[in-house]
Design a protein that fits this description.
Elements: E1 3-6, H1 12-20, E2 31-34, H2 40-47, E3 52-54, H3 65-70, E4 76-78, H4 89-94, E5 99-100, H5 107-122, H6 125-133, E6 151-155, H7 159-168, E7 174-178, H8 185-191, E8 193-195, H9 198-204, E9 207-210, H10 224-227, E10 235-238, H11 247-255, E11 261-264, E12 286-288, H12 297-315
Length: 335
């Protein structure tokens, strides 16, 4: 018998329906188990002998080393999101389980969100709205600026970073980027983007947006020292991972008017903790959103469709997309 264990808060009926509609002939003895409400120890028991695991897109149900060891022999752990920091990748690799995410499924959504909040910050939209509602009629006092002619620094030039650069070319913006892997010259020319080391990028940019993964190298990448490199008129946008930006340092920089504004969609603790220092900032030019940059109606459909299709592929011995660890070829189990 083939068994999929789902840690996602999705009804089994929806998973069944989507798997049936993905165009791949499923094993006739397939069972889908909803393990989302189970305790950690119960999940360890549930994944034993499983063919595949569907991860939790809320990140509440973690895939620990103990779970990975119990699931040894599984064909795939499929995470229905781009992020997978709640999965012990080393343990999964050690026992030979491929882990896949849904890279690219939220690229459009994340790029549009980034551009939206950048314009809101540059136009001082929150101040304009609140003052109008309060009965004030501020026009010249709002001090909004144009995006045209500004310099935008992209920290991370993966799919989202490139999607933003593609959209910026129509707005007369100078684009800088930093990334561990420099683009080919042809791609730099196509995107009108120039490579810079991160400190130089921060010093030169009017808008800085963060799109890199959370790793040991990027933890607290934007700290007090690097925030001090930014122009007083510059704004910072983080839609990547909360731990990449030192939240206390950012709160201090905003409170002391050392940068002009920030938009933060991701936090070191989610849901947002009541003692997060950013909640203490008294500024109309701080926009906080609940990790929704990549979750439009359209992207949610792409994410879950990609995840379900990958699960079906793994069950019939096909190679899934977007595997993030090296475990060799994916083959159908026998016996």
């Amino acid at each position: 018998m083939e068994k999929i264990v789902s840690l996602a808060p999705l009804p089994v009926e929806i998973i069944w329906r989507m798997m049936s509609d993905c165009g791949i002939a499923l094993p006739p003895d397939l069972e889908i188990v909803n393990a989302n409400p189970l305790s950690h120890s119960e999940i360890v028991s549930a994944v034993k002998g499983s063919s595949a695991i569907l991860g939790d897109y809320t990140f509440k149900q973690k895939i620990t080393r103990e779970i990975a060891l119990a699931a040894k022999g599984a064909l795939l752990i499929q995470q229905p999101s781009v992020g997978y920091q709640h999965i012990d990748i080393d343990a999964c690799t050690e026992v030979g389980i491929p882990v896949a995410n849904t890279a690219g499924a939220n690229t459009i959504s994340a790029a549009e969100h980034t551009f939206m909040v950048a314009l809101c910050l540059l136009k001082n939209l929150m101040t304009a709205h609140r003052s109008a509602v309060a009965g004030q009629w501020l026009q010249l006092e709002i001090g909004s600026v144009e995006i045209h002619g500004k310099t935008w620094g992209l920290i991370g030039m993966g799919q989202i970073g490139r999607a933003i650069a593609e959209r910026l070319t129509a707005f007369g913006v100078d684009i800088l980027y930093t990334d561990p892997v420099r683009l080919e010259k042809e791609d730099e020319n196509r995107l009108c983007a120039s490579y810079q080391e991160i400190d130089q990028l921060l010093s030169a940019s009017d808008i800085v947006s963060v799109h890199c993964p959370l790793t040991d190298a990027t933890y607290a990448l934007i700290d007090r020292r690097r925030l001090a490199l930014m122009k007083p008129s510059a704004v910072l946008i983080n839609i990547a991972r909360g731990e990449i930006v030192d939240e206390q340092a950012l709160a201090n920089a905003l409170s002391e008017n050392r940068i002009a504004g920030a938009a933060v969609d991701v936090f070191s603790e989610e849901p947002l903790s009541t003692d997060n220092p950013l909640l203490q900032v008294q500024s109309d030019n701080l926009i906080l959103t609940p990790h929704l940059a990549g979750t439009t109606n359209e992207s949610k459909i792409r994410i879950i469709s990609t995840a379900i299709s990958n699960l079906a592929k793994a069950l019939v011995g096909e190679k899934p997309q977007f595997v993030v660890n090296e475990v060799g070829d994916i083959r159908r189990r026998t016996g």
